[in-house]
């Protein structure tokens, strides 16, 4: 990675761009850190190569992309960096720093399609049954797992929930997703029951002060994303699940199992909070792949049974 300081003038606009993103309030600090790292690395590379970022050409930018490929940066990361840096140049155009979009026409590298992993329903059941119902933390954790799987929520949406955002009579919650977009999510009876048990028997024991946060830690404050990630891995280990279980795996499983059950793609898109059906479409491929595996296994079993029958009929030793 280049170590030179970013171009002085471009660096000042870069900092102003980050301040604008923070002021808009629709990007997390994690996203801001990614923006700082991606654009900062690019500006440092420009300094190292004696290129003026404010006079960037497409040929020069393609040279930068070539450098990333030489360093074996994966296509998905190159695509993200290209998109992030292009956003910075669109900002420069809006501010009148440049007279045109200097990266207009730059094609994003094609990302290889990787199908999301999905948990088998039996493993989901084992995971959900692991938290103890005898402790406030156990009741809380069961409610979290039920929401992540039963509602398809992102972990950030779960920990960001306030108690007042729930409507257990209808099995609904108002959540704030990516880009600060609000949507209504629905969940079934298992999640409703788990939330009721937590609200009436678990949360009061954890609450130490006035807070609207739904899920509380042992100090009575809002639970963090990292805490939920750690909690899920712990329960997966206890349940003997040989998979790297994380919150988004439950969301992937929710979407795929919904489609397996015949849910309409548009409905699943709305429940997940995807702005484009293209994003949700990936789960149809997962569902189809799962169905193909089941079909292949069934035919293999039928063929094996037929072969066994022929062996018995001809008295051929196995």
Count the E strands. Answer: 3
Percent range for β-strand residues: under 5%
CATH topology of the largest domain: hpI Integrase, Chain A
Kindly name the structural category: mainly alpha
CATH top level of the largest domain? Answer: Mainly Alpha
CATH level 4 superfamily of the largest domain: Intergrase catalytic core
Query: N-to-C SSE series?
Result: HHHHHHHEEEHHHHH
Task: Describe the structure concisely for a colleague.
The chain has about 325 residues and is mainly α. It is built from twelve helices and three strands.
Structure, described:
By secondary structure, the chain is mainly α. The protein folds into two domains: 8-94, DNA polymerase, domain 1 (Orthogonal Bundle); 121-279, Orthogonal Bundle (hpI Integrase, Chain A). It has twelve helices and three strands. It has a three-stranded antiparallel sheet. It is elongated, with a radius of gyration of 25 Å. Mean pLDDT is 80; it is low at 1-6 and 285-303.
